[in-house]
Amino acid sequence: xxxxxxxxxxxxAAGDLAEPCHSIPITDSRVTAAxxxxxxxxxxxxxENGEIRHYDPRKGEKxxxxxxxxxxxxxxxxxxxxxxxxxxSKDTTARVDxxxxxxxx
Length: 105
What we know:
Layout: E1 5-9, E2 22-26, E3 31-37, E4 42-47, E5 51-56, E6 61-67, E7 73-78, E8 84-89, E9 94-98
């Protein structure tokens, strides 16, 4: 209530839990579902407005987004080889889409 939504990423391998290595402000639509893919090279989030967004966690930047639903995304799941994503929404639909690959440098 009154707080901005923010994704904070911590580098657990480095053992630094005091400060996030990246902070991604979410100013327009709160995150309602999230998952990691691509060996932690991609963060996929579902939002209240029906968008699915892909973030490059190494840069802390959004690299792709698509509007798949008309209401809140309630769940995100990957297939076994992490090439396809299924999203479920409060609009009573489920959608299947390819996982966008951010260019990891």
